[in-house]
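PROTEIN DESIGN WORKSHEET
SECTION A - STRUCTURE
LENGTH: 131
TOKENS:
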């Protein structure tokens, strides 16, 4: 059974991932593209689409590897927030950073009970094997 807390973390992960996808598309096509009229940098959204289905379905394995993938977007957000000269682009960098952090924290907190259960099972298996 899924606890209310786990539902909250799952919904937070979904919302932040979808918001990050929308932000990346809007940023590179409309809001502050690197080149007028849009930028090929919009293709950076493709890796974010890969874990979307698994996150929606609460797939533990997908959530694990997507928590590492999201760190690329955290890094890009920090770099662009601190180095872009256009104020809007810098602000969007901070928003990207916040969404990446939100996704990461929600996924980690959602997965925590699964990791604790796996450690407990591993200890039990080691205990049985050593007898």
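SECTION B - SEQUENCE
RESIDUE ASSIGNMENT:
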């Amino acid at each position: 059974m899924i606890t209310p807390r786990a539902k909250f973390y799952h919904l937070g992960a979904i919302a932040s991932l979808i918001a990050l996808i929308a932000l990346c598309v809007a940023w590179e096509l409309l809001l502050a593209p690197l080149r007028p009229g849009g930028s090929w940098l919009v293709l950076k959204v493709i890796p974010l689409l890969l874990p979307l289905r698994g996150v929606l379905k609460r797939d533990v394995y997908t959530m694990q590897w997507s928590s590492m993938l999201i760190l690329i977007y955290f890094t890009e957000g920090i770099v662009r927030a601190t180095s872009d000269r256009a104020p809007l682009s810098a602000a969007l960098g901070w928003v990207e950073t916040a969404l990446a952090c939100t996704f990461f924290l929600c996924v980690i907190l959602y997965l925590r009970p699964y990791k604790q259960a796996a450690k407990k099972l591993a200890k039990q298996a080691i205990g049985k094997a050593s007898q």
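SECTION C - NOTES
The radius of gyration is 18 Å.
The chain has a mean pLDDT of 93.
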